[in-house]
Specification:
Distance between the termini: 30 Å
Strand order of the largest sheet: 1-2
Number of helices: 6
Number of strands: 2
Helix content: 25-40%
C-alpha cells in the first residue's frame, strides 16, 4: 500500500491524502496534535486525534491558531508522543496514561480566561471505551 500511495502522490500532487493508525511508518510518524492535523469533534472540542479524544480547548470559543499553540498540543509534540518514527497503531491510545498526565499538567498551566469553563479534561474515561 505504501508503494501505491507514493505513486499516487507523484501522479496527483494536489490530491489530499488521509492517514489512519497503521500508516505512521509511511507518513513519517504520528501526525496528530497539530503535527499534521488535529480533530474537531461534533461539539467543537479540538482533539489531538479522533482515536484519542482528549481535549482542553473548544474551537467554537477560540481561534484555530490558539488551539494549535495550546500547551497540550505542544507538550504532546515535545515529549515525542507525536511525530517521529512509529511502527503503527495509535501512539496516543497506546500511551493514554502519558497523554492524560500531559493533559492534566497542560490544563493546569492554562490561563483561565483562555480556557472556557468546563473544558478542562474533556477526554473520555477508560470506562467509556
Amino acid at each position: 500500500m505504501a508503494d501505491r500511495q507514493i505513486v499516487l502522490k507523484k501522479r496527483y500532487p494536489t490530491i489530499f491524502s488521509l492517514s489512519f493508525p497503521g500508516d505512521e511508518a509511511e507518513m513519517g510518524g504520528c501526525l496528530a496534535a497539530g503535527w499534521g492535523f488535529f480533530h474537531i469533534s461534533p461539539s467543537g472540542e479540538a482533539q489531538a486525534c479522533p482515536f484519542s479524544p482528549h481535549s482542553d480547548r473548544i474551537l467554537r470559543q477560540l481561534s484555530m491558531l490558539d488551539v494549535l499553540q495550546s500547551d497540550f498540543f505542544k507538550n504532546l509534540q515535545q515529549e515525542n508522543l507525536v511525530g517521529g518514527e512509529h511502527t503503527g497503531g495509535c501512539t496516543l491510545d497506546e500511551r493514554r496514561d502519558a497523554v492524560a498526565a500531559i493533559l492534566q499538567r497542560s490544563s493546569g498551566s492554562q490561563d483561565d480566561a483562555a480556557m472556557p469553563q468546563g473544558t478542562r479534561l474533556l477526554g473520555r474515561s477508560d470506562k467509556d471505551r
